[in-house]
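User: Fold this, then the next.

Assistant: Folding the first:
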Amino acid sequence: MNLFFNRIAINRNEISGAFGDIGTDLPLIIAMLSVSDLKCSSVLIIFGTMQIFTSLIYGLPMPVQPLKAVAAIVISQKISSEIIFGGGIAIGILMLLLTLTGLITFLNKIIPKTIVRGIQFGLGMQLCLMSLKNYIPADKFWGYIIAFVGFFVGLILLGNKKYPPAIFIIALGIIYSLIFHTEAFLNLQFSLPQFSLPQLKFDNVLTGFILLALPQIPLSLGNSIFATNQLVKDYFPDKKISVKKIGLTYSFMNIMNALLGGIPTCHGSGGIAGHYTFGGRTGGSTLIYGSFYLLLGLTFATHPSNIFQIFPKPILGVILLFEGIALILLVKDIITNKKNFFIAILVGIMANGLPFGYLVAMILGTILYYLPQKWFLTHFGKQNEQNSDK
C-alpha cells in the first residue's frame, strides 16, 4: 500500500502539478478538433485514458501530449481523420521497430547530454514565444491583465508545497471566465460518448507515414525519447527508466489511439517540466490530469470551443510560459563549459529555425560535439576572447 502511494499520490501538490502541461495540450487538441472530422468525445476520453495509463506504468508525472509536428500539419492542412489514424499507426509501428531493434538505445548512447540540453533549450524558447505571441494576447487588454496577475501569483507561490501555484492560477482563470464568458457555463451538457472503430486502410497508413510520420519521428526521438529520459534522470535520479521503455509506451499509445479513434500522442520533456514545476512528483498528477480529460469528454462533446472560454488562453499562456522557462533553465548544468554551452545554444536555435530542425540540430550538434577540443577552440574560442577584449 505504501508503495502504491509512493507511486500514485493524491494531494494538493499533485493536483497543482496535474495542470502543469495544460497550456501545451489543450490548445492543440481543440485546434485539431476544429479543423478535422475527429469525434470530440473520443479524442478527449482516449487522451485522458492514456494519461492514466502512463501514471500507472511509470509512477511519476510522465506526460502524454499531442504530437506537435502532426498537430501543426493537421491544423494547417485540415487533414482528415482517416489520414490522422493512418499516421498514428505508422508512427507507432516505426517507433516500435526503432525500439525493438535496439537502434533507439544505440542512438541514446552516442547523442551526448549537451545535445539533449540544446533540444530542451530550443523547445523552451518555442513554448515561451508561443505563450507571449499567441496565448497571452488572445483577450487583448483584459487578457494581459489576467495574465499578469496569474504570472505574479505563480512567481510568488512557485515551489510552495502548502499553496501550490497552478491551483490558484486555474481558479483565477475560471473566475475570469465566470465574469466575461458566463454563457460557456450555461452550455455545459453531460452526454455519453459514442465510439466507433476507425476503418484503417493501407492507403491511409501510407499517406499518414509520408505526410505525418516522417516529419514527426525526428522531433519525437529528440524530445519525446532522449530529452524525456534525461529529464527523468534529472528530476527522479532514483527511478530507473530506459529509452526502451519510453519507446515501447510511445508505440503502444499511438497504435491504440489510432485503433480507438484518438489523436497521435507522445511523451515529452516539456510535459515533465510542467508537471514538476507546479508540484507533481508521482503518477498522481497525470492520473488527475487524465481524469480531467475524461470529464471534458463527457461534458464538452457538443461544444468543444467552450473549453477555451472556461479555461481562457491568457491563463493557459501563463502556465505554458513557466513550463518553457523551466526547460530553458536546464541548460545551467553545462553553462560553465564554453564548448558545450555554445553547442547547446546552437542546437536550440537550429531546432527552432530550420526545416526538420530537430533532426538537423541533432546531427550537426553531435558532429560538433565529437570534434576535438583543440579544433573547437581554434575556430570559436579565440574569436570569442578577442570579441570580449573589445
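Now the next one, as you asked:
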Amino acid sequence: MREILSFISENREMIYFVVLSIFVGIEVIGGVPTVLHTPLMSGANAIHGVVIVGAIYVMLHVEMDNYLGLGLGFLAVLLGTLNVVGGFVVTDRMLEMFKKK
C-alpha cells in the first residue's frame, strides 16, 4: 500500500493530466452531431492503429520478467485491434446503406 501511495504522490501531475483528458474527451465526443460520426470513426481507427504500433514497440523493449508490462502491452494490442476491426465493420455497414440496390 505504501508503494502505491508513493507512486501516486510522485506522479500526481501525470494522473491529473490523464483524468482531465478523459473528461475533456467525453465532453468533445458527446457534442459531436450524428452526421459526423463516420469521419470521427475513421479518425479513431487511425489513432488506434498508432496505439497498436506503440504497444508492440513497448512490448519489444520490456524485460521478459516484467509480467505487468507484458500483460498491459498485450491488453493494449488486443483492445486496439478489436477497436480497429469493429470500426471498420461499422464503417463498412454504414457505407452499405448508401449503395444502390
